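Dissemination and training. As part of the outreach component of the grant, students in the summer workshop were shown how a complex can be specified as a set of sequence lines and then modelled as a single object. The example used during the hands-on session is reproduced here so that future cohorts can follow it. Participants entered these lines:
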Amino acid sequence: MDHGPAVELGVDHAAKRKTRLGIWMFVLYTIVYGVFVAIGVANYEAMKIIVVFDLNLAVTYGFGLIVLAIILGLIYNWRCTTIENEMNKEEKP
Amino acid sequence: MIYGVSYLAIALFVVFVLIVLGLSFYFGSRTKSASGYFAAGGNIHWAVNGIAFAGDYLSAASFLGICGMIAFVGYDGFLYSIGYLAGWIVALFLVAEPMKRLGKYTFTDALDSRFNSKAIQLTAAISTLIVSIFYLIPQMVGAGTLVEPLLGLDHWVGVVIVGAVVIFIVATAGMTSTTYVQFIKGGLLIIFSTVLSIYIFNNGLNLNPDAKNQEYIQPMTLSADNMQGFTEVSNLDVKDVSFVKMEKDGIYRWFTKDGDKFEEAMSTTKTPDGVKLYNGAPKEEGKFYQVGNMVTIIKDGVEVESTGKVSPLKFLSIINSSEVARYVTVLFDDGDNAVTAYVKTVTPGKEMLIPGLKFKIGKGATPLSKLNFISLMLALFLGTASLPHILIRYYTVPSQKAARKSTIVAIAAIGFFYVLTMFMGLGAATNGVLNLEDGNMSAPLLAKAFGVGLFAIISAIAFATILGTVSGLIVASSGAIAHDLVDRYLGKQLSDKAKVKAGKIAAACVGIVAIILGILFKGMNVSFLVGWAFAVAASANLPAILMLLFWKKTTAKGIAWSIVVGIVSALGIIVTGPSISKQFFRTEGLHGLDSPAIISFTLALLTLVIVSLATQKDNANKKA
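and obtained this result:
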């Protein structure tokens, strides 16, 4: 039985480095997300503190988590593309 | 019905459905192979796939459910936005590229890529079906909710219409048409949510939010020396609220009593013979009106009646320093009548803009309620990367790089939309548009307050949202049945043509099940229901996916048992929990845990580790 992908994929020499990078970025975001949940559970009143532009910590942190996800995604893609270009050079036609 | 039928909305809705059906016919005539049917031939451009991801993901739960929840309980609804988006981090950093590398048509392919195990094929396919059906329920509930005001039809008719159209779409064309439907719908949803938000900012905040096409009616306030013709009939204390039943012109209404003041509570009453009264009168008389308004508005330290045009950040900061009228639901029996009262509760904006109104993590919190909150946030974080209809989208693009890029496009599009949910939800809470019986309609009804044209477009998009998401889920389910179960587990060795045919039959069967469940779960918040789908997905699928990718000692038996334990524990906790008991049996349930992930995910993970360690010889034999 063929378990291969729907389309044929070339060998990706960069896979290991990309995986390591992905794990680190995942850990970073998880910590920031975990701190948000911890503040909610441990001291939800702290969420009322006005932080910036007259917005409280809850709104600032919530929007911040969304923006951070986008920024980390862009950084990850940029780094992965650089790594792929370096390590998969010989694969290019 | 507390709002009239819009013929423009009906016309747009019909146009949308016709476009979708046209796309299905077009792609259906070109789809002959299994690869085309289940994975769109792996030829979709990453940018199109990224927006299609957004289309898949921004389901009824996001647009209807989250906006509705924010409108009723403020920031607690926004927690879903945060959690749903955070889940994409797991998908991007850990799952996207390996899934693309390992799979073919379904997520079972990826899990089974190292083992060729019957146990994995069976359990992963069943898991796909269960998660998809759990995710289908809220979509169908949302469909019924939308069709009720849009077409003036009963809830169940809406569910049947969506089910029938989607079965047709999927049974004709599969993943290619589903992808383009999602792409169009995802794009339109983001564009028109932005338009709706701009309307909110231009409109600002008002103590009397009279809409263009309807006058805003404030609930009545009576005092002992001015009863306006009402006479007291009976008194009833429920929890901390004193209710008084009043009569005028043969119509009975409920008021709350505070000293010698009486404030009207909106109410529905179900009589023993099945008649439902709205504020004491039949629905058609229109006594049960839309509500939700600012009680005080403080702008730059000064109390004002209206703010005029505001910026997005100013909109939030004004709500933070003002007060909002929310409505809290209280259930009680009055003789043989079952009464649902909605009690006006003046809530400081400060409380609306932090967690705690729905999820008890502050005042009145218990260890269990805090555990529920943590468990929900965990489920949302871990659930996305384990949803079968999301995972199969990685097979529609040509490379791992495309899989990664399409995920980033999805994160940007979805993240932007989720920021808007905050404004749309709070806009609905303060513009006098809430239907207390059904929070899911908050965003479309807000659009209606700004004009029937906008309402028509938003409703048609919301409907397309449901069509698209349901299509994706049914493709995932039909793949699980036709490819994983029939072809691989049962070893029928189907030809390409037979596999596509089996997929179409499976799509029809799953669609019918979804229709039945959509009718049974009427009235529950769709985002809350999706929270369950995430919990089941995170428990059943994610431990298996992650350990397969990152732990070399993982065995086939470990994966299979982990899926079984994840499903059984998550479902067990949900079925015996408070929400199901309340919905179907009006009881409290066997325990107070509503979100199972913290227990079920942990159990599934432990099971995988223990069983894998105990069956290491399987891996050794395989290598030998």
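Chain B touches chain A through 66 residues (CB under 8 Å). Students were then asked to discuss how this feature might be tested experimentally.
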